[in-house]
Write a structure and sequence with these properties.
Blueprint: H1 2-26, H2 37-49, H3 53-84, H4 87-115, H5 121-152, H6 167-177
Length: about 180
């Protein structure tokens, strides 16, 4: 009886672990800023390590799309935190966004190289198109970021506006004229 209970507990624990692991791996909220991110990266590395050479590029495209989704999630978090003026956390998330973007670009390069190994021309074309689409999305994000920064900049006026005179200033001017 005790052996059956132990077996059930082990099985339920394993199912719970696999469920949580799957949720972590699939969640776009699991970003570089999350403590669960190393688990997600380990799962991705394992899936890539055990993949056939022909499937590596397709898996990398999926991972690249996840990096783009993570990057967008991080940028939304940054915008929300900037509104709340949580500057310390904004800085950490910006660092995570930079690392994620860099990882996405490296992954795109690897996926492109691995796509060249695909013998089926239609599949190769689809994979390369998906990589290019993700890279274009990354580049569009960079351009939008520059445009947003330009909108924020305020031109300094050439001349300082005259201050409104206070009653004390008028009295001082009147006293100087006498």
């Amino acid at each position: 009886m005790k052996r059956q209970i132990r077996s059930i507990i082990v099985i339920l624990s394993a199912l719970l672990f696999l469920t949580v692991t799957g949720m972590v791996a699939a969640s776009p909220a699991t970003t570089k800023a999350s403590p669960l991110y190393p688990i997600k990266k380990a799962i991705e590395a394992a899936s890539l390590a055990f993949a056939a050479p022909e499937d590596r590029a397709a898996i990398q495209v999926t991972q690249l799309e996840e990096r783009v989704t993570e990057l967008n999630a991080l940028k939304l978090q940054i915008a929300d935190l900037e509104k709340a003026q949580a500057l310390e956390k904004v800085s950490r998330l910006q660092e995570a966004a930079i690392v994620t973007e860099s990882a996405a670009k490296k992954l795109a390069a690897s996926a492109t190289l691995d796509a060249e190994k695909i013998s089926d021309l239609d599949e190769k074309k689809d994979v390369l198109n998906a990589v290019n689409s993700s890279v274009n999305e990354l580049e569009d994000e960079d351009e939008n970021e520059v445009e947003d920064e330009e909108e924020i900049e305020v031109d300094e006026p050439d001349e300082t506006p005259e201050q409104n005179e206070t009653p004390e200033d008028k009295e001082n001017e009147a006293g100087e004229e006498d």
